[in-house]
């Protein structure tokens, strides 16, 4: 099978406004640039439509579609594990009951648990727990559930999903190479071992067989592309904006780099040439949107403490009755060790599965799609 070179991407100058407003391509559940024939096949894929259903999920377990999905998920995970094993990453078992150090950014989306009459949280990320081992083990990774108290029941949100994370002693440029290679290893494992399953579910094998490196644009360049939709520098890009950008750059994986410091996690490394941005990258995938969040990390105690004290995350924590003391162990580590330059990311398994399947609905990407209506 011929592999698509991602550096030869088609640009399309079509507009995305309808009646003066942005049309949400993901909300419409169809790709804006799809050809008539391709669009028809996507919209009539009854196999994926079946997998979106969460009502009486147990009735689907005997279906060929559900069995195919389970095997595809397993192959994606095996592909990731093969890459980490081949590249000397050490797998770490991180805690899933944590203080606020287990939060991604928004404290309000954390599930609170009574831990022997003391509040703790269901973890959203193992990032900080990986970071403190990076100076000694050099390359580490983990896999586990990420919990979000998301009240929305829709095609983009789950209350629990699988997150693959890595940290290593390196730069943003090398980190993006690792991400490209992990995603490629995951996809290639599916293409090698799940031919019948992806054919059953209607996956376009050529579409996902993309050869790294992936296309990269800066946040500033992205905002310029989106200026006609009212997007200004400093705005947090919405899912519809990500969708537009992916389609502008040829409906293939797209890195958006160097976001404003004010809208990103407190310990992302400030750019040495521009103090208003951080050395960060999000990987946007067709169909699913943001699948990977990545960045270099701050590793010196004083700037790390200052960034945390000024962060919206800490403000939210205090408003919810917490304090900076949740981060005592993390700050103490950097006070003792000063750390080393390192970078890392989180890869959402379900978003990668969406990309592989060509599904705009995250509920079709996993055997047990958890939201507030699907507690089992």
What does the model show?
By secondary structure, this protein is α+β, with helices and mostly antiparallel strands. The protein starts with a strand and ends in a 19-residue tail after the last helix. The chain has one domain: BirA Bifunctional Protein, domain 2 (2-Layer Sandwich). 36% of the residues lie in helices and 17% in strands. It has helices at residues 25-28, 36-43, 46-52, 64-86, 127-131, 134-137, 172-193, 195-200, 205-208, 219-225, 239-248, 301-309, 312-319, 328-337, 349-357; strands spanning 4-5, 17-18, 21-22, 90-91, 97-98, 112-114, 119-122, 139-147, 160-168, 210-211, 215-218, 254-257, 280-285, 289-296, 343-348. β2 and β3 form a beta hairpin. Mean pLDDT is 90; it is low at 9-44. It has 15 helices and 15 strands. It is globular and about 55 Å long.
Query: Strand tally, please?
Result: 15
Instruction: Sketch the topology as an H/E string, one letter per element.
Output: EEEHHHHEEEEHHEEHHHEEHHEEEHHHEH
Q: Strand sequence of the main sheet, in spatial order?
A: 4-8-9-15-14-13-12-11
Structural class of the secondary structure composition?
Answer: alpha+beta
Level of helix content?
25-40%
And the CATH topology?
A: BirA Bifunctional Protein, domain 2
Distance between the termini: 41 Å
Number of helices: 15
What is the CATH homologous superfamily assignment?
Bira Bifunctional Protein, Domain 2
Q: pLDDT below 50 for ≥5 consecutive residues: which ranges?
A: 9-44
> Which CATH class applies here?
Alpha Beta
